[in-house]
Design brief:
The complex is a heterodimer of chains A (93) and B (310).
Chain A: E1 8-13, H1 17-28, E2 35-38, E3 46-51, H2 53-65, E4 70-74, H3 77-92
Antiparallel strand pairs in A: 1-3, 1-4, 2-3
Chain B: H1 16-29, E1 34-41, E2 47-53, E3 62-67, H2 74-90, H3 95-103, E4 105-109, H4 114-122, H5 175-187, E5 190-198, E6 202-205, H6 217-235, E7 240-243, H7 244-247, H8 255-261, E8 266-272, H9 287-307
Parallel strand pairs in B: 3-4, 3-5, 5-8, 6-7
Antiparallel strand pairs in B: 1-2, 2-4, 6-8
The chains are: A alpha+beta (93), B alpha/beta (310).
Chain lengths: 93, 310
Amino acid sequence: EELFVGHQVLRVTADNEEHIALLQGLAEQAELQVDFWRHPTSPGNPADLRVPFSSLQAVKIFLESNGIPYSIMIQDVQELLDEEKKTMLKSRR
Amino acid sequence: MERSTGTFDFASYHTIDEIYNWLDTLVENHPHLVSKIQIGQSYENRPLYVLKFSTGGSNRSAIWLDTGIHSREWITQATGIWTANKIAEEYGQDPSITAILDSMDIFFEIVTNPDGFAFTHSSNRLWRKTRSLNAGSSCVGVDANRNWDAGFGGSGSSSNPCSETYHGPYPNSESEVKAIVDFILGHGNVKSVISIHSYSQMLLFPYGYKTEPAPDYQELNELAKKAVSDLAAVYGTKYTYGSIVDTIYQADGTTVDWAYDNGVKYSFTFELRDTGRYGFLLPSSQIIPTATETWPALLDIMLHVLEHPY
């Protein structure tokens, strides 16, 4: 079973078309393994990015250095999944 | 042991076996209204089941509903279960659903991507695509919502098998997609296709693969406006609406564009609720509120289809 310990989901809000283009470029950097849960569409609309722990620093530096605002939507994906599994087991019982 | 839909926990997420067992239970509990048909097999040979809600007649006009083409969006399958149960329970009680089913059939595929869904339960909770192997690549699966023959292979989809939006080698390459295509075309009288996804709180209609407005834009837009308004009236959840290309971005090869291009005028896709905290990993406590608020919007569309024959 694949685990997602330390993966975060960042909610990124592009302020302008340039930010959107930068985010699209991020999607093309396969080595970062960023999973776009919600793609950037237009300025002001949020994009959600799941970022593996190993890429977190690079992605955050990228966002900050380009002045793209973001917040952490999910602090640790695995914690959420563990909670989900626990709830399912409880329901079955 | 006697089974009953009364013991099924609609407020919990379920495995594919549990859901498939529940389909049988629903059929047993509503034998004169609901039947289960198999429209094909998945890549890994799982049956593709569709619930048929029908009060009789032959080849009546029909509405197609599907949930869960992106396997990890569990809230959609869960909403599908609740909705299917609601349709069965409300027939004969609610005048709108009764009128719809007295004239039309409803086909409902609750687990549209069973291989992917099973994989989310066993190996990778975040799996989104099908599970077909891609020749020449170590990456597995195709985005089934980019695999339809409507602007196939263009913008908003990827030719890279490792991408989450990989469109596949050719249109309908995925047996899960082909089965629906064959079913709808074979039926010949499907008047509405409603494909349910999550998340981002939108109600969208064609086109996604081109920027020109659909010939029925005005009517679809008005209907979407009413549906999201009635949805919002339940818990205040705000949806945006519009054509796919105007509302999100150009997305080629999608279900609703294919349906529209093949004569299904009332083609819509929902993106269910987003609390801004969980993405598509909504806690199970959100299932019933999500399904409950979606119901009036679905009913609006289905009723409009009934009242506007073409």
